[in-house]
Design a protein that fits this description.
The structure is a single chain. This protein is α/β, with parallel strands linked by helices and 151 residues long. The protein has 5 helices and 6 strands, in the order E-H-E-H-E-E-E-H-E-H-H. The protein is 44% helix and 15% strand. Strands 1-2-3-6 form a 4-stranded parallel sheet, sandwiched between helices. The longest helix has 21 residues.
Length: 151
């Protein structure tokens, strides 16, 4: 797979601590690319993880605003919004319900090649495009399913 982001690329994963803004102010130059990682939970939060969901929603909002501000300087600002992915993050076997890591990674790089500004995969790709009513319905269904699984 041929993949090339022009200029320098900055990956920002932790906007809540102010790291994102500090990096952006220091490194944003014409031709550079910023990649922020949010989550599908930025759009349909998980009630059992409110701080995580809210932080990822803040990264989404930050990314939209930064993209708007940077457009005149020829700076690309990309948001990658992963769904649940089957990794060992947080412990072995905790995310076996998630999407296969290789499939997700392939989809992200394909999104880069298509010059997408918002990249999701399966559930999170749908979440990026939900209407307000669909967000409410998806939120309820997601949290009912998780709540039922824990009882």
């Amino acid at each position: 797979m041929n993949f090339n982001l022009s200029g320098n690329t900055i990956l920002v994963t932790g906007g809540a601590s102010g790291i994102g803004l500090a990096l952006a102010e220091r490194f944003l130059k014409a031709g550079n690319t910023v990649i922020n990682v949010s989550s599908g939970l930025a759009f349909t939060p998980m009630a059992s993880a409110p701080v995580y969901s809210a932080t990822k929603a803040a990264i989404h909002s930050f990314t939209m605003s930064l993209r708007y501000q940077a457009q005149k300087q020829n700076i690309n600002v990309i948001e990658v919004a992963p769904p649940a992915v089957n990794t060992d993050l947080g412990g072995v076997g905790l995310h076996t319900f998630g999407e296969p890591l290789d499939d997700f990674a392939d989809a992200v790089f394909a999104g880069f090649e298509r010059n997408q500004l918002e990249i999701g995969y399966r559930m999170s790709e749908r979440a990026l495009r939900l209407s307000r009513d669909e967000i409410d319905e998806t939120f309820q269904a997601l949290n009912d399913r998780i709540s039922g699984a824990n009882h």
